[in-house]
Amino acid sequence: MTHLKPHPYSPHLARGLSIVELVSVLAIIGILMAVGSAQYNQYIEKSILAEAHAELSEHQARAEQYFQVNHKYTDMCTKLLTSPITVTDNIVSGDVKDYYAASSNFAYKCTADAATYTLTAIGRKDRNMNDFEFRVNQLNQRTTYGVPTNWETLGSKHFPCWVLTKPGECTSTK
């Protein structure tokens, strides 16, 4: 009589997972979730910062158009940024009287005289962006004047560009 070997998927050979296998699988899933979550958060933050850069670029183009027509920047701020922020909005730290417009994540400030202007995007504190501050002027000098404390990897909060990611990666300086 010949002895037949049982089929490898036979119910007689079925067994459960050992605790070591189960812990290993859970550890791998946890690592993948942690890495994925960090990448997702970085992606969201990068897109929010790009919003401020795009708004500043748009305001800058409008400022240059204003100068072409009026040959000065005086009064440009009140004409270009038409949505004044009231004190009750409480979306930026400090005095809000000079802020003229707000987006979902940033408030925008404008200062100008006859020959110069500075446009500033300040992160809204009600959106947890309150440490970010980006500026651009009539010479197209783009600077970052504020980043969160945990971003201070280059020893400074000031960068000669608009930062886009935590290590201080910049968008173009012009």
Description:
The chain has one domain. The radius of gyration is 27 Å and the shape is rod-shaped. The model has no long low-confidence stretch (mean pLDDT 77). A five-stranded antiparallel β-sheet has the order 1-2-3-4-5. The protein has 174 residues and is an alpha+beta fold. It contains two helices and five strands, in the order H-H-E-E-E-E-E.
Tell me the layout of helices and strands.
Elements: H1 19-70, H2 76-80, E1 99-102, E2 106-112, E3 117-123, E4 133-137, E5 142-146
Antiparallel strand pairs: 1-2, 2-3, 3-4, 4-5
Shape: rod-shaped
Radius of gyration: 27 Å
Mean pLDDT level: 77
The largest sheet has its strands arranged as: 1-2-3-4-5
Q: How much helix is in the residues? A: 25-40%
What characteristics describe this protein?
174 residues, alpha+beta, 5-stranded antiparallel sheet, 2 helices, 16% strand
Concise structural overview:
With 174 residues, this protein is of the alpha+beta class. It is built from two helices and five strands; from the N terminus they run H-H-E-E-E-E-E. Strands 1-2-3-4-5 form a five-stranded antiparallel sheet.
